[in-house]
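Lab meeting minutes (informal)
Scribe: AK
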Amino acid sequence: MDLRVRALESILVEKGYVDPAALDVLVDTYETKIGPRNGARVVARAWTDPSFRDWLRRDATAAIDSLGYSGRQGEHMVVVENTPDTHNVVVCTLCSCYPWPVLGLPPVWYKAAPYRSRVVLDPRGVLADFGLSLPPQTRIRVWDSTAEIRYLVLPMRPAGTDGWDEARLADLVTRDSMIGTGLPLSPGAGATAGARP
């Protein structure tokens, strides 16, 4: 699929139908700004508003929609919450089902066969490949997205953020922390996309 997309892009650029710089800006916007920023706002709201957090657990689709983030690939959302005892990670083993309204475009590795097959068999090993080493006693749950259900991980709020407002907290939330292949940034780490390329 990746080769087909690249071939089509090359033809469109060659014929002058698409400006490659504009296409790069569009892809970057969806990969790093619109989608992940939306999800980060959902997470930050859940961290600061217990009633929203409860609503998110009960009916994630409606709670997320209340913030204005809805649309195709986000119709049937389920939020799974990380705890000190359980860490959640999301995959789509059949293709690349992904919650676009809250996470933007899926990263290339999410769609790749090695991630899709290996995270089910060796989630701890895959997380280690992402630089995330969890304590041996932490249970890892793998959630398989489908055409009917998309998952969003609600990561644990970082320590040392008491009194922070939603905007400041959202800067700590990374795309990977909402997939489960990473954690939110620590306070003082600075606001970055914080996602594996």
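Next up, CB showed the second protein from the same session:
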Amino acid sequence: MSLRQDNITYESLLEGNKEWVAERLAENPNYFDELAAGQHPPMLWIGCSDSRVPANQITNTLPGDIFVHRNIANVVTHTDMSVLSVLDYSVNVLKVKHIVVCGHYGCGGVTAALGSKQVGLIDNWLRNIKDIYHANESDILAIEDPIERTNKMVELNAIHGAKNVMSTSIVQNAWAQGQKLSVHAWVYSLKTGLITDLKVSASSAEDMPAVFKMDVK
């Protein structure tokens, strides 16, 4: 644990907030008035809850630039009402133009999903990642290095999440109505700080396998 983390307390967080407000106002006296006027972010970020992967900092963006949903291991399923609600609001109200599912190397959730040790309630959540592993088992087992094997699973999990986003009725209806919307899969490296585009993107239903296409209204 770093010295800075040792010094973080309940009180220090409140003091840090005051310092941050003072810095913003020194730069722009109207900063918070402008921020309170409304949000029009061009991107939805679906990422991991890991404290080391804050969307705004690693993309060098400001509050108001990215709408964010985070959960353990950036899992996207069609039965999660939380992620679906965020997705619906982002697409149909905020009219975002890009949706990114971003995983990160060294993800504890993915690592746990590759093992058999029980952690707790989260084991049921991570079952989704085990399903991805099962579907790609031969390819994963062909990778000898355990770190590289886990990294590959991180990538596959992000790709699977992006494809699940693409196949929702929310996104497909938006495409059918001519809305400009693209979905992407990314992965972030804690060691380098760099984001890699996994080159799995879609901007229309034509970019998807036929089995996932819906007859839209």
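CB comment: The beta strands are 43-48, 66-71, 98-104, 182-188, 195-202.
No objections, moving on.
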